[in-house]
Amino acid sequence: MFTTITPVQNILSISSHVVHGNVGNDAIQFPLNLRNWNVDCINTTNLSAHPGHGVFTGGKEKAKLVGDLFQGLKELLLDDEYQAVIIGYVASSENLQVIWNDILTQFTRKNVVKVMDPVIGDNGKVYVSQEIVDLYLELLGRNEIDIDLLTPNMFEIEVLTGIKINSWETVKKSIDVFCAKYMRVKNLVITSVTIDGKMYCVGSSKGKSFYYKVSEVDAIFSGSGDLFLALLTDELVKNEQVLAVSVCKTINVVTDVLNMSYQLLKDDCTTKRNANGKLYIPDLKLVESKNILVRDVEVIEPTYLN
Prior knowledge:
GO biological process, one term: pyridoxal 5'-phosphate salvage
Protein name: pyridoxal kinase
Family: Belongs to the pyridoxine kinase family.
EC number: 2.7.1.35
Radius of gyration: 19 Å
């Protein structure tokens, strides 16, 4: 006897891949599978492990392969196969060019949710090539493709807008500049904004900007941004692009996954500390957090900026 199940949806995720660990597509696929998504992955890297481990092999995938893989999917699947597309770490300017010109342009239906994390850097440092930075600025500035959600961190929004953030006034100014400059981006989430030593997640949608305070975990994680991207995409689709509700639920779940990973690894002799003495956790404990990933979350009202 078959029981009624929640309808399954389909998503294409283009990001990095590691053989060991949970970053990039490996932090995106499993959580979305748990939430009833079939996830097709195109990998922009193929590494043995995250470089944060200190030892890794492998490298970037060539842009031709990225494009060829998508063409193979296009020939195999119907045009309406995907309900959403995620663009994460692109690895090279050539990959970004192919993703923008040859892949995103194929998703012209209004109901395909297109989500992009413009991975440029963090903590005041660029960790991709200048060619990638320049190409993001150029492509987004063309205003030719609708992007349903862009998820830069604080440093990345500073790069995209040219506004240095150090107060709520500069946060509002950066959002105003962003909305004027990148008019085809429907929703903006600045994933981590630090004001007066406290961390916040800031969102802007339909002319309204808001924020939630984020409970920090005393460690540095790899893969947390990818997990955030996956879960926020899921929530955005489920909540019909009501951004504040989607952000609230995502923050709660990601924070609990980080706490679980921290508790499991804080006493592990292989867990390293960074230059500031903080624990560095290169691999999230996603399987161990599976109950967290699917639990319901109480929604609270955000604080509005305007």
